[in-house]
Specification:
The protein is mainly alpha-helical. A hairpin with a 4-residue loop joins strand 1 and strand 2. 18% of the residues are buried. One of its GO terms (biological process) is exocytosis. Belongs to the EXO70 family.
Amino acid sequence: MEFAELESKPPLALHLIWIIVILQFNLDGKSKLYKDVSLAHLFMMNNVHYIVQKVKGSMELREMIGDDYLRKLTGKFRQSATNYQRATWVGVLYCLRDEGLHVSGSFSSGVSKSALRERFKSFNGMFEEVHRTQATWLIPDTQLREELRISISEHLIPAYRSFLGRFRSHIESGRHPENYIKYSVEDLESAVLDFFEGCPVSQHSRKRSQ
């Protein structure tokens, strides 16, 4: 915070803000122990969000800290959520680009089926790994969990729907299309609902079938 912002605050408020700053510093240090960068960002998001909710839930704490600093904390956990999405989904969405799929020559031009098959295989493998892993991660706050799922869907689903619409016919006209197109759009929408529940995918499937 700017020094001018702190000058007007009473000693108890300054002490409380200092405690929160130290807590964030310690959390940041612990997050670096995670080998998975996406999980490190999720850890920070969960914990800073918890602090924000505790402050919002207490009129006394909120008045002491002030709305300016509360907005800074809110920005902190939202930045962690953005960092998580970048770390997790940029590579997955990169599979759904057009570049590298089109061929042109003196005798033919169009889509390279071999490159397209590899692209679908890469997407399937990456999404399966993210789905399997991140279903076991937990976001305890229901609203935050739902907000992050919606944000994921808003980026993933339109990109996959568009890619599938453009290139499905090239795969389905070849042999064993089921080896490459493993997901319908609806399959992905359903899979995103498994994220951040804190249990393996197999348990989610059983819940949905009950």
